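Lab notebook, design round three. We kept the backbone fixed and only want residue identities now. Task for the bench partner: fill in a sequence for the structure below.
Input structure tokens:
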């Protein structure tokens, strides 16, 4: 088979066809990325790891919003949405604090200092970034992996959000719509800039099943996800939509396809059966991820990692439709020899004959 560029390879796989080899997307925790730069002797990890996908996003906000009034605990860290976190010493785990947890009225949500993600300047550099990566042969993905649900509960708290939804409280409608409006703006900007893929998603599942009923998801979250997808496709009809959710997402897969999703990530192997999901949905859906960061990668032997990688490639990649990679970022608990075993196995088993 004729060799492809990374971009051709990713688009071929995302459209459930067979490329020259299985494309890869290897994401690393910052600490591990530093280790890998030292190991490979290069700051260009995308090239060193033979990755196929480059990511782009909006420029940082010019706002300097002070969210201290929403928190009583000192030493808080927050992002531009105001989601409060208190990190551990290694910046690995965080206790969450919710700025809208105490909101008792719609007006309090309307007055909240929302991020300026509707402003055009946030996306002005995107077209140049996208063109630069594509000129180097890479597929380009715009990231919105926390689309609506995760941002909502991290602002309101999961308990209060679900209470609002159960009561059909207008506060939930206003909160979700304010978030969705900003995700629509970003999706349109990505599409105008010419990205090849947009990654949407929310972690809506545990390892035993969904965090909410399917009915609740279809009523409250599917229409908003569809708004975002439709907005992007109104600008660029052929943009690939990848959806991310950790956990046992099985009960929503058909709904995600109906909503317009092309690629499902990360098909977490600890709770999603690869053979089942490929057989059930492989004719309508491509897959990415698949390598267990909770199990085999940190705790297996190099031989077990090799076999795990081979099985994922041969199952999810049968006939095309697979982008291989860890099911989340590679953390510092993955031994170097296991990481290298994964990379070697991808090289060995990821070629289509």
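Proposed sequence:
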């Amino acid at each position: 088979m004729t060799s492809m560029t990374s971009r051709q390879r990713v688009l071929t796989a995302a459209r459930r066809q067979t490329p020259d080899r299985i494309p890869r997307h290897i994401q690393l925790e910052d600490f591990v990325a530093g280790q890998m730069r030292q190991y490979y002797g290069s700051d260009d990890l995308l090239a060193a790891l033979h990755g196929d996908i480059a990511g782009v996003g909006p420029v940082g906000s010019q706002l300097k919003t002070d969210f201290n009034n929403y928190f009583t605990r000192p030493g808080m860290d927050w992002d531009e949405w105001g989601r409060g976190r208190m990190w551990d010493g290694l910046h690995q785990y965080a206790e969450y604090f919710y700025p809208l947890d105490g909101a008792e009225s719609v007006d309090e949500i309307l007055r909240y200092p929302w991020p300026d993600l509707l402003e055009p300047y946030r996306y002005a550099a995107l077209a140049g970034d996208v063109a630069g990566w594509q000129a180097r042969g890479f597929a380009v993905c715009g990231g919105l992996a926390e689309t609506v649900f995760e941002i909502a509960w991290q602002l309101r708290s999961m308990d209060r959000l679900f209470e609002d939804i159960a009561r059909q409280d207008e506060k939930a409608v206003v909160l979700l719509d304010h978030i969705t409006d900003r995700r629509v703006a970003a999706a349109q900007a990505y599409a105008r800039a010419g990205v090849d893929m947009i990654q949407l998603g929310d972690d809506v599942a545990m390892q035993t099943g969904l965090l909410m009923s399917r009915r609740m998801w279809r009523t409250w979250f599917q229409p908003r996800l569809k708004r975002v997808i439709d907005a992007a496709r109104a600008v660029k009809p052929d943009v690939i939509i990848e959806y991310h959710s950790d956990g046992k997402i099985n009960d929503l897969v058909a709904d995600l396809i109906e909503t317009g999703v092309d690629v499902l990530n990360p098909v977490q192997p600890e709770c999603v059966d690869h053979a089942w999901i490929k057989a059930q949905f492989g004719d309508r859906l491509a897959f990415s991820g698949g390598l267990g960061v909770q199990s085999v990668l940190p705790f297996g032997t190099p031989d077990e990692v090799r076999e795990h990688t081979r099985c994922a490639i041969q199952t999810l990649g049968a006939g095309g439709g697979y982008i291989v990679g860890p099911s989340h970022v590679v953390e510092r608990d993955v031994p170097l020899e296991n990481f290298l075993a994964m990379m070697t196995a991808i090289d060995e088993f990821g070629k289509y004959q």
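Keep this in mind before ordering anything: Residues 170-193 form the longest helix (24 residues).
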